[in-house]
Specification:
The complex is a heterodimer of chains A (about 350) and B (about 375). Chain A has about 350 residues and is of the alpha/beta class. Helix content of chain A is about 45%, strand content about 15%. Chain A has two domains: about 180 residues, no CATH class; about 140 residues, Ribose 5-phosphate Isomerase B, Chain: A (3-Layer(aba) Sandwich), CATH 3.40.1400. In chain A, strands 2-1-3-5 form a four-stranded parallel sheet, covered by helices on one side. The longest helix of chain A is centred in the middle third of the chain and has 21 residues. Chain B is about 55% helix and about 10% strand. In chain B, strands 2-1-3-4 form a four-stranded parallel sheet, sandwiched between helices. In chain B, strands 6-5-7-8 form a four-stranded parallel sheet, sandwiched between helices. In chain B, helix 15 links the parallel strand 7 and strand 8. In chain B, helix 2 crosses helix 3, helix 6 runs antiparallel to helix 7 and helix 6 packs parallel to helix 8. Chain B is globular, with a radius of gyration of 22 Å. The chains are: A alpha/beta (about 350), B alpha/beta (about 375). Chains A and B meet through helix 4 and helix 12 of A and helix 4 and helix 15 of B.
Chain lengths: ~350, ~375
């Protein structure tokens, strides 16, 4: 049996779990190719235009998955106790049925960590019946999935590279190599002389920052000009400590990661500037961005918000990026002259 | 302490009653208007949804009347509304308004914390018995308000002068606002019924038995409850001779959201998830599931059309909107989706509503005027 897994949205954070899960069940997983123009265009045609870019891209990827026996679209309600994913995750797969090519069945299962591990196992076992797998198999698959996911998450941290990590996993799922989990741990970060390079933090949803086509290769462009720190480079403990200042806990898992990491970047003197990557119509970002922008202003950290949508003119993006980097660069040079007392006398009139 | 709160349709009547019966000073902000929205939009994040912008506008307008404490309900997601209280507090603080924000929700699930917040608002003089009595009375009022609203929905297409109907509605709201006894609330509802009956007798017999079109309104709760936000869609449809029903009424929301399902409200929303099941088996936050369920229910009850309305970028409703075409196909009922934001204009909305109603009317008459070949050919000869 061949199952199609679209390379969009939940792929970027949760693919290792599902890859491990299906690997253990001996089901072949096929992922769609990286986003290209046709995928994007197909996606735009098939979903409601009010929805956000990542969902439109997902719809395109679903259509790109022909020659599979079924398409797998899990309903990822929650991946952590006391949080939710975005409501649009909760509406999958029903909201995307229009995009599924005729004749290909959709497989789905609800994953809700709010209800605890036992409920998830139960749901997965019901799902397993559809695949013709027994309880013991599912239990084993779940454990392996968890293991892979944990490896994947632990491998994040400084020097983590999404492409590299995911390539390892895909190799395993294609059966090219034997599963060697040790390869998943990152190689020691290359020691580079980075003293004079700028360090820019790029925060945003994983399915935007790593979506090269959708984000006009923002990450790549940024890497050429500066050292880039991502949300995934921040250790979980650090994210958690940086969330403590909030009077009310955030209830979206993604938003927590983004805000926690963003808050760390904003306070980190080594980071020269923060870019928030969002997409038009993102509900969680409209709140989190506002919170983070406030903190950035308090800390006098250069901060820019970029909103993506499906219109693909790259000149505007490039100009903004260049202007931002120029600004950060100049600021860095001039800050060498700040008086020895440490603080500007008039810190509110930030003339630079 | 002077308490204020955001507007949501008729909710102010209920909230005012609640605080006044507890002898807490309360400021009702001026009703939602263009100015409210402008003031709010200036401070809000641009991609926030419209209710947030109106809320902020309400608070700013209430400042002039000495309000210093905001009461708002909360939630734990995944709809954005759950985080409104906190983000509004920060925005207002940075803009220089010295507001204290009390979010009525169990903080981290602790009911004791909620009790503490209620106690903070109610002061030390009110006993718990009194608080519960006040809550009950406010709830009764909200049910009565919904009853009146529903009567008006039915009256609008049937009574001759639409302006008189609106006047009656306003008068009824005023009466309910002012009365502080259960009897008074009941009397008002009866009075509205009587007045409608009287006026109906003036109608000629030939007019009286005309059956108006029926349209079900579904969507995001704030938008459908608040006539300013929905650009007066119900009144407008009533004027076009359409009987309107709505998926959620205020007391239904109060019953499920604030009393956690202990009270059913005027129109219970409990049956909706069951109706939605074939199309959307899982809740999606906000009232997305209820929207789909209500669409199915309206379709089954033979409504002529359904209108979904929600603020731009509302996450749960977008999910619902992507499922609704299937309902439309299965039940052969036209569903129109309207999206509102701070740029929505009256005229654009009106045109779309008129077009929709025209379409429904034509569909209704079609069986009577059967076309055959001869008919079509004779058109040219006439």
């Amino acid at each position: 049996m061949k199952i199609g897994f679209p390379r969009a949205l939940f792929y970027y954070d949760y693919f290792p779990f599902w890859a491990g899960f299906f690997h253990s069940l001996d089901i072949k997983v096929v992922t769609s190719p990286p986003t290209h123009r046709q995928i994007m265009e197909q996606g735009l045609k098939k979903v409601s235009d009010d929805t956000c870019l990542p969902l439109k891209i997902l719809a395109g990827h679903i259509q790109a998955l022909d020659k599979v026996d079924a398409i797998f679209l899990p309903r990822m309600v929650s991946v952590e106790a006391d949080t939710y994913n975005c409501p649009k995750f909760l509406g999958i797969p029903e909201s995307l049925f229009t995009a599924v090519p005729a004749g290909i069945p959709v497989l789905t299962v609800t994953l809700n960590w709010r209800k605890g591990r036992r409920q998830i196992l139960k749901d997965l076992q019901v799902f397993g019946l559809q695949l013709g797998k027994g309880k013991a198999d599912i239990q084993k698959a779940f454990t392996l999935g968890q293991e892979w996911q944990k490896q994947y998450q632990d491998s994040s941290g400084a020097g983590w590279d999404f492409e590299e990590t995911i390539r390892e996993i895909e190799k395993v799922t294609k059966g090219l190599t034997k599963p060697q989990m040790s390869t998943l741990t990152p190689s020691i970060p290359k020691v580079q002389d980075t003293t004079d390079r700028l360090r820019i933090a790029l925060v945003g949803h994983s399915y935007l920052t790593h979506e090269a086509y959708g984000s006009q290769n923002l990450l790549g462009r940024l890497r050429k000009k500066a050292e880039v720190d991502l949300v995934q480079h921040v250790k979980q403990e650090e994210v958690d400590t940086n969330l403590l200042g909030l009077r009310k806990k955030l209830f979206w898992n993604h938003a927590k990661q983004i805000f926690g990491a963003g808050n760390k970047f904003v306070r980190d003197p080594k980071i020269d500037g923060v870019i928030y990557l969002s997409c038009f119509g993102c509900g969680t970002d409209s709140m989190v961005q506002e919170l983070l922008a406030r903190y950035a202003r308090e800390q006098h950290k250069p901060y820019m918000m970029i909103t993506l949508d499906e219109h693909s003119g790259e000149a505007g993006l490039v100009t903004r990026l260049e202007a931002f980097i120029d600004m950060v660069e100049r600021r860095k040079v001039h800050e060498g002259y700040v008086s020895a007392y440490g603080e500007c006398l008039d810190r509110d009139s930030n003339a630079l | 302490m002077k308490v204020t709160f955001p507007h949501m349709g008729n909710a102010w009547i209920v909230i005012q009653t609640l605080f006044e019966s507890l002898n807490v000073e309360v400021v009702v902000p001026p009703t939602n208007s263009k100015r409210t929205l402008q003031l709010g939009t200036r401070l809000s994040p641009e991609s926030a949804c419209m209710p947030l912008k109106l809320n902020l506008g309400n608070y700013i307008e209430a400042v002039n009347e000495g309000a210093d404490t905001i009461v708002i309900t909360g939630g734990i997601g995944p709809c954005r509304f759950g985080y409104y209280g906190e983000i509004e507090r920060q925005i207002l603080r940075d803009a220089g308004y010295a507001y204290d924000v009390v979010t009525l929700e169990p903080p981290d699930g602790s009911l004791l914390g909620l009790a503490g917040r209620i106690r903070y608002l109610a002061g030390t003089k009110n006993s718990w018995v009194k608080i519960i009595k006040a809550l009950r009375f406010a709830y009764l009022k909200s049910v009565a308000l919904d009853r009146v609203e529903d009567l008006i929905h039915a009256a609008r297409p049937r009574l001759p002068d639409p302006r008189e109907t609106e006047k009656l509605y306003e008068a009824a709201k005023l009466r309910i606002t002012q009365t502080m006894t259960e009897l008074g609330v009941k009397e008002t509802v009866r009075w509205v019924q009587e007045s409608i009956r009287e006026r109906q007798e003036e109608i000629k017999d030939s007019e009286r038995f005309r059956k108006p079109l029926r349209i079900g309104i579904i969507g995001e709760i704030y938008t459908i409850l608040d006539p300013y936000t929905s650009v007066g869609i119900e009144e407008e449809l009533g004027r076009l001779g359409v009987e309107v029903d709505r998926s959620i009424y205020l007391s239904g929301w109060v019953g499920s959201h604030i009393f956690q399902g202990l009270a059913p409200g005027y129109r219970s929303i409990r049956s909706y998830p069951g109706h939605a099941k074939p199309y959307l088996p899982h809740f999606v936050g906000g009232h997305g599931l209820e929207t789909v369920g209500a669409a199915v229910k309206f379709a089954q009850e033979g409504y002529n059309g359904i209108i979904q309305i929600f603020p731009l970028s509302c996450m749960p409703e977008i999910v619902a909107a992507s499922v609704l075409p299937k309902v439309q196909e299965d039940y052969k009922v036209p569903i129109m989706t309207l999206v509102v934001d701070e740029h929505t204009g009256q005229a654009g909305m009106q045109t779309r509503l008129e077009a929709f109603v025209d379409l429904l009317e034509r569909a209704n008459f079609e069986p009577r005027t059967e076309h055959n070949r001869g008919d079509v050919l004779s058109v040219g000869g006439r």
